Fold:
Amino acid sequence: MATAAPDIVIIDYGMGNLRNVQKAFEHIGVLARISSRTQDVTQADALVLPGVGAFGDAMAHLGQGGLIGSICQSVSEGKPLLGICLGLQLLFDESEEMGTHRGLGIIRGRVVRFAPGLKVPHIGWNQLQFAGHRAAGDAAGGGAAGGTAAPRSPSPLLHGIRDGSYAYFVHSYHAVADDPTCVLATTDYGLAFASVVQQRNVFGAQPHPEKSQEVGLRLLSNFAAIVERGEPR
Structure:
């Protein structure tokens, strides 16, 4: 008897290119439904938190929709969560964007603006450089997307994506994690900022996977595989 596909919910809180994210999942053969209902969020097998716009507005919309508690409950139960672009930033404690605003507080750290003198927003293609939390000499296997052969990422989220691969960014603020070991990849733009993060069952990608072609589709496929395997919990 066939096993039912995992229920992946893309959280609709009024800010984000939800349909584009859903279409990217469809492109890799994964069903993901869009919902703003708290019951759907708490009952889902996994969550995707996209987002574009201002941090404070996003948190206000999540609060007005009663979604903050539902998201945190799902995370505490070990369900995988993927934050995309602004969604990654919302995972952190606070942001300095247009004042100080509290985030979801799932990953310790804060969101800050790029240094004066840099053109913002940071927009366009840039590289994902894997962080150094991996065993030396662990070479990547075949079938990786983009870049050149390099040590493998320590996380299944980046499986098959080569160190130095290009992804597409649009943002003026970046996350600074208190614990550097949760940073899976960095990207250089005036400094090496955290572009892919993971804390147990919570993942975040600052670039837009739905705009990052092969690399972005591979990242979404990897997340779907993590959900399918029921890990990490």
